[in-house]
Specification:
The complex is a heterodimer of chains A (about 525) and B (about 300).
Chain A: E1 2-4, H1 6-15, E2 23-26, H2 29-39, E3 43-47, E4 60-63, H3 66-76, E5 80-81, E6 84-85, E7 89-93, E8 97-108, E9 113-119, H4 126-132, E10 137-141, H5 150-158, H6 167-184, E11 186-197, E12 202-204, E13 208-211, H7 236-246, E14 252-257, E15 273-280, H8 282-291, E16 297-299, E17 301-306, H9 311-322, E18 329-334, H10 343-356, E19 362-365, H11 371-381, E20 389-392, H12 398-410, E21 431-435, E22 440-444, H13 445-448, H14 455-459, E23 465-468, E24 471-474, H15 478-485, H16 491-499, E25 504-507, H17 513-526
Parallel strand pairs in A: 15-16, 15-18, 18-19, 19-20
Antiparallel strand pairs in A: 1-13, 2-7, 3-4, 3-7, 5-6, 8-9, 8-11, 9-10, 11-12, 11-13, 14-17, 21-22, 22-25, 23-24
Helix pairs in contact in A: 2-3, 5-6, 7-9, 9-10, 10-11
Chain B: E1 10-14, H1 19-31, E2 34-39, E3 47-48, E4 51-54, H2 57-64, E5 72-75, H3 79-92, E6 96-99, H4 106-118, E7 122-124, E8 130-133, E9 137-140, H5 146-152, E10 155-162, H6 165-177, E11 182-187, H7 198-207, E12 213-219, H8 224-233, E13 241-246, H9 270-279, E14 283-284, H10 291-303
Parallel strand pairs in B: 1-2, 1-5, 2-4, 5-6, 6-7, 10-11, 10-12, 12-13, 13-14
Antiparallel strand pairs in B: 3-4, 8-9, 8-11
Helix pairs in contact in B: 1-5, 3-4, 7-8, 8-9
Classes of the chains: A alpha+beta (about 525), B alpha/beta (about 300).
Chain lengths: ~525, ~300
Amino acid sequence: MARLFEYQGKEILKRAGFTIPDGKVCTSPEETEETAKKLGGTVAVKAQVWVTGRKAKGLIRFCKTPEAAREAAEELLGQVVNNFPIEKLLVEKLLEVDRELFAAIIIDDAEAQPVVIFSSLGGSGIEETARKHPEAVARKHIDLKVGLRDFEARELVRKTTLDRSHYNKAAATLVKLYKAARLTETRSIEINPLIITKDGQWVAADCHATVDDYAVFRHPELGIEIARELDHPITTLERLAYGVEKSDYRGTFYFFQIIQDIPEAGKNTQGEDIIGFHGAGGGGSMISMDSLGKTNFAIANFCDTSGNPPASKVYRAAKIILAQGPIRGYFASGSGVASQEQFHSARGFLKAFRELGLSVPAVIRLGGNKEEVAIEILKTHLADIGVPVEAYGKDDSAVSCAERLRALVDGGPYSPIGPDPISNPDPPEKPYAFKTLTGQWTVDHAKCASCDKKPCVDACHPNILELDDGKVVLNITAEEAAKGRCTECLACEIACWAEAKKAIKIDLPIPGLDEYLAEKEVVQEVS
Amino acid sequence: MSILVNKDSRVCVQGITGREGMTRARLMTEYGTSVVAGVTPGKGGQEVLDVPVFDTMFEAMAATKDQGGIDISVLFIPAPLVKSAAIEAIEAGVKFLVIVPDRVPIWDVMEIADAAKEYEASFLGPNTLGCLSVDQAVLGMMGGTARSAKDFFKPGKVGVSSRSGGITSSIAYYLSKAGIGLTTICHVGGDVIIGLPHSEVVKRFQEDPETEVIVMFGEIGTSQEERVADLMMKKEVTKPVVAYIGGKGAKEGTRFSHAGAIIEGGKGTREGKIQALKAAGAHLVEDFVDIPKVTSEVLKSLEKPE
């Protein structure tokens, strides 16, 4: 679930009509000082981080003067909290508190319903309050059809120790909060504390909110760039991977890095070999990762390409995995008995490995529907690349495949042949090209004319290629091909390079990857 | 016997004229599923695979009423449109839905759940590969082609409930290969909120006279496995449960590709689930490959005379 910072949560509340403290998001000590001066009096300088209990951890500072605020900012900015550096501070005018309350709307997964929780005691964690002062806390499931109605909210707050003079205001606040949650599709939204000031105002002094990842597309107003939860700041490769996933609706591609800087030797401090991991299916990926536990490997990344992805998506995933750095092996393994045709993934691996010139051993376990075709593809076309690539199917367990990779990694050194000419073919003399959903298909008709086999046409599963005067062309419109009739299965390219004139080239760019690799090289040279 | 679907179930495919819907409708039919109607708004009047296509679910219900109506609807529809299609099916009177697509927004799923409750319907998914009753019928995409599904899954006495689609078919295949046949295999879906979590599927296996042993694939996150343990404690489930829980190497706060697979605030841990299930008398499997062995032992112990 996409986590929001306090200031983002407060923006939701503000749009819903809540009063929030006067303040501003600051990113430098100067700005903090300036803001404190403008606000006047004592200010709270609050680090924008995803942890609770910030006050006790020194991540919220109360500053009486602008200079003190500046000093606090200097101390806080850049500090690393749970792997994330503090980049933003929320600087707010201090409130004169009369009373602290708690209000939240969260989703109860087991009941498939939202729950409203209210407490007449705020400030500390709600679980602790519920334990120590159960009489102060009330909760209620909300009927989605009618939402939270004011009389229901009044009945709820009546069950707490709140003074009855506040019932109406508290009920209205809860109704407003529910509407905000519903509108923004939050998984949880919590105001703690909800403050009644000495002059009788109700102010949301803090806000924790998470938003449903699947609903982020409906909420551009939230400005969530990547609807994915990570335990570290997003890396360049993760950003690129997310871009690939976003621009191709076919299948799912999930990627995150576990080891973000792979040492040159490809080993971690415990001396374990670091390998790239490529799973298929959520559960299968999990089990496959578990299966590596006993083989003395460290895993560079988690990756899952599933939901029947096209070969092009698997190709891009493999390229991103290999771009991580000097890994010592490549392990691909899914559930073992997939319902999807496995040869799509095989072709994706094949193209990536040949183009990039795989330099480490790989074990690819592609079990399930049409696995014999998939295994055959890998065995036939990767036998000559100078490093072993072994392919297995459903009757080979993830554990035994992990053991094979161990043996292969220990069995080196190997002499990889390096990138295939396919990665950089001569410019075509007589190009014929069309756009695919995520790339471009090109053939050199000058080479094509001398081919008497045309295995590309036979290999084309969606049947969109035909011969016209001895040359291969589309038999549908270019528009149809670009819309997805060309499924980017890569079969024509592989057939052309293996059996014919090496005339077809399918370009499947990953925007930003070349720049990433170039920059990395520069850094390595400097160091 | 079986749960959720059998050879007589009358099935509708919502989104039957789409790429995925059409392919899957064909594969389901080939395996033995009785697909009697399809629905795509604006495409009514056509036929797909000799199946009549209707514009709305109400129309499909009315048109098929004399032959026995529609028992089940399988949805192959883009995620943002799922809510409307699912509630349409429920209000039209369909009692069981299979919601295949992933990325259905959680508030939409809650509305579907709400409608299902009101109309006494239930649904599998979202984000499910579906379910399959061996040699009878398949809903969704379980098993791939009819031929591979027939090859992979053999009939027998074991029911499978899994949080992962691929693992559902894996377990079913490895059991069949070891000579252990199956009743129904079911992928509950990978999301946080799903219509039929493990606990609901297990209850149905409990009621199914043919199912003797239940194999469950659990994952970190959610409270589904704990709820199965509760049912066993309360003796609402008395059939033996063989369980494997994945996510040994998962750190707290790391979400895998299943939206439901995360440990948050110390809840939903692998250890917690294993403890709860063990205490309830389930047979926990430590290594995935040992599932057939353990299941076979459990089946044998059932054969022993009292």
